[in-house]
Specification:
This protein is an alpha/beta fold and 271 residues long. It has one domain (2-269): Nucleoside phosphorylase domain (Rossmann fold), CATH 3.40.50. Helix content is 31%, strand content 24%. The chain has helices spanning 2-16, 89-102, 161-173, 194-202, 213-221, 246-269; strands at residues 23-27, 39-45, 63-69, 72-78, 106-115, 125-133, 178-185, 207-209, 226-235. The chain has a 5-stranded mixed β-barrel with strand order 5-8-7-6-9. Helix 1 crosses helix 2 and helix 2 (89-102) crosses helix 5 (213-221). The radius of gyration is 18 Å and the shape is globular. The two termini are 31 Å apart.
Amino acid sequence: MLQELKESVTYLKHKIEDFKPEVGIVLGTGLGGLVKEIEVSHSVLYASIPNFPISTLEFHSGRLIFGTLQGKKVVAMQGRLHYYEGYSMQQITFPIRVLKALGIQYLFVSNAAGSLNPDFKKGDLMIISDHINLQHESPLRGINDSDLGPRFPDMSQPYNRELIAKGLKIAQEANITCHQGVYVAVTGPNLETKAEYKYLRIIGGDAVGMSTVPEVIVANHAGLPVFAISVLTDEGFPEDLQPFSLEEILETAAHAEPKMTQILSQLISSL
């Protein structure tokens, strides 16, 4: 991995010249609008970067955006990668390694998720305070390279408490409905059955999705403080489970996105 990482970073440093990002941002399904707030310096297609996986989803742009947001130098992944696309866990988290090597000091992650908590409604936001990983494989499986991180990284605080507190305060002051809760990661791409939604709630989940946790594990392995936020695009309540479509999920994400963007922008400004 170190050789592949070196090749990717060398290519990007040549492309972005002396630009050194402080903050990395991963934009989830339907949540690419934050890019509009960035004063863009450079834009690089995933497909042009050596060893970089390519997003196979038509609604994920697949490019790295370098620029300034709220006075901070940022790099945003406009389009993330998922395990269900057929990539290994190491492949989908490779971009986090690249961003770390480029110099980021914080990682901000967004996603679209389904609500498991009856008090959390469609269109609300949820700051992730912890997670349950039900995906089949860890991105850290295999030989560990101590240059990247420790063999057994601590996960007692995967999401930075100070950033969570700041994010909740920003939401409260802006009168934005924003909860905090536990995110359950599943492999997908199928959505859950009634019995599965019930099970996920019983084990302590407040929201369920198909991403985020692999990136967070690798960020912790690399020593990066993490802030993660979900837009709740659907409701997985077994007693009244309704069919829903990708179009509905994207529509809900687009409607809630300005609120998420406001929180992320102000939080990044406070760093």
